[in-house]
Write a structure and sequence with these properties.
The structure holds two protein chains of two kinds. Chain A is an all-beta fold. In chain A, about 0% of the residues lie in helices and about 50% in strands. In chain A, the strands form three sheets. In chain A, strands 2, 5, 6, 9, 10 and 11 form a six-stranded mixed sheet that branches. In chain A, a hairpin with a 4-residue loop joins strand 9 (about 85-90) and strand 10. In chain B, strands 2, 4, 5, 6, 9, 10 and 11 form a seven-stranded mixed sheet that branches. Chain B is globular and about 35 Å long. The chains are: A mainly beta, B mainly beta.
Chain lengths: ~110, ~110
């Protein structure tokens, strides 16, 4: 069963425009959700985790249990935000990753 | 900041041969993981390891795969009788505690099976 769904494989926005990367999950327990980012030729890096409710690099993500979503948002995209973004669900022993969304910010 | 390191960065192996991928997790971390990412596809969980035992494994982790922590610092993934479909990027990750802790990833090893 697909645990994490990222419906957009590619997303392009102009610099300064708002951006939203969608993530939906499927899990009957209490979810622990993360966003990871992978810049070109670099490792996967933790961007956000839902329990910390913090803003990193201007990104925020809110867990919506009713909609089983954990969308990543930023009000004003920057060129340096161009990267691959992965939503991940931790069930305790396993991480389930989405297929990723490649974000391109157009100058 | 401490990092997870993986060697080699690229491994080319003939089909049917054995390959060992190496990882050095962050020193005070206790939980270790292997993931793979086939080109163009998502990152997939392979196995988790704690206290010198496999704690969880996916269906991908068949009997050709094994993991080991031979010396207290390295964490290795061995694949025997490699197949063409084993070609992928393999990521090692570690976390200080298990459960719902974020994982720290290495740069990955690109495995190419010819």
């Amino acid at each position: 069963a697909q645990r994490v769904t990222q419906p957009e494989k590619l997303l392009s926005v102009f610099k300064g425009a708002p951006v939203e990367l969608k993530c939906n999950y499927s899990y009957s327990g209490s979810p622990e959700l993360f966003w990871y980012v992978q810049y070109s030729r670099q490792r996967l890096q933790l961007l956000l985790r839902h329990i910390s409710r913090e803003s990193i690099k201007g990104f925020t993500a809110d867990l919506n249990k009713g909609e089983t979503s954990f969308h990543l948002k930023k009000p004003f995209a920057q060129e340096e935000d161009s990267a691959m973004y992965y939503c991940a669900l931790n069930t305790g022993n396993q991480f389930y990753f989405g297929t990723g969304t490649s974000l391109t910010v157009i100058p | 900041e401490p990092e997870v390191t993986q060697t080699p960065s690229h491994q080319v192996t003939q089909m049917g041969q054995e390959v060992i991928l190496r990882c050095v997790p962050i020193s005070n971390h206790l939980y270790f993981y292997w993931y793979r990412q086939i080109l163009g596809q998502k990152v997939e969980f392979l196995v988790s390891f704690y206290n010198n035992e496999i704690s969880e494994k996916s269906e991908i982790f068949d009997d050709r795969f094994s993991v080991e922590r031979p010396d207290g610092s390295n964490f290795t993934l061995k694949i025997r009788s490699t197949k063409l479909e084993d070609s992928a990027m393999y990521f090692c990750a570690s976390t200080i505690l298990g459960g719902h802790q974020p994982q720290h990833f290495g740069d990955g090893t690109r495995l190419s099976i010819l």
